Amino acid sequence: MLKIIAEKEHLISALSKALPIVDKKTIMTIINNVLIYTKDGQLIVEATDLEISFRTIIPAQIQEEGSLTINARKLYEIIKEISEPQIILEELDNYWLKIPVGDKAEYTIAGLAPDEFPKFRDFPQKNLLSIPGKVLKDLIDKTIFSVSYDDRKYALSGILMEIQRTDDSKTLIRMVSSDGHRLNLAENTIDQSYEKDEKFSVIILRKGANELRKLADVNEEVLLTADEKFLYIQTVSDQMIIRLIEGTFPDYNAIIPKEKNRSLFFNRKTVLSALKRISIVIQDPSFKGIKISVSPGLMKMESLDKKIGQAEENIEISYSGEPFELAINARYLIEVLQVMKSDLVEMVFNDEDSPVIVEGEDDKGFTALIMPMSLEDE
After folding, report:
1. Vertex 142 angle, CA 315 and 196, to 5°
2. Where does the pLDDT of residue 376 fall: very low under 50, low under 70, confident under 90, or very high at 90 and above?
């Protein structure tokens, strides 16, 4: 029966990675739990919501081999509040877990049979592509916020990820997301050679992309591969399997305008601050419509919703063309500017009905597209 001693910080780290994956709404009690077991002298923790499966290895002193499943939240909360640097986990009869704390305290939690826990899929070791963690994180950061929350748009409820070999035998990684009102595309080229001739193309569900981002944030390298239904991710101590979204992502190349009839430049931080101030007086938290009036050297932004107040700001820009007006959702533009690094941002308008394109010199490979709103009722 399981009995181990592990550092508190290692257990807390593992459980904090597992908790977001555990399904809190399910009626299946077993997947409210984490699976804890020993194998080859190591302690392993697994979690799943049947869409995402996670496994991590923890350094530990294995005194007795064993396995059991325990409520993830309760185990995490108890261990978090114990002040001892080392934690003892000891299995009792009927899958109960004892956590003794010196000779002063003892906690026991009811568990479930490990045989009931969903099996972790066999992890392929072929065709693993190594991607720098900071590259993956940046690509996800620039696309995750425009994923659709509309269940009817199933193919848009995740991020499209494409990987292909470039003409100079490097590897291009591209991520694209859209909710039908906006689209974000981010890509980066890494030096590693991509061995396959065909393009790697999958749609990663939103929750899976968020969890992949967390792994990318704390690992220098992330290994990826996929089959028809799952994306497989591996780091030094963790493995994750994400069920892919089945469907066809829209042809994003057909949506992004190729022409630049009207182009202006502005300071990113100046416009971002102005948009945040204007948004304060707009009542609807999601529909933050603003009117933009552009003339040579000047851009005026004003709130469309005037129920609880109104605001307008004039900002100096670089533009010398004909005056024009359009309306967009300020929240969409705020979210784009927040993930960009460029000081100087280019905004392209072809006409009042065509998409607004946002790009920046220091954000190579990133293109944001925002559909305009109608000004007819204003």
Report:
1. 140
2. low
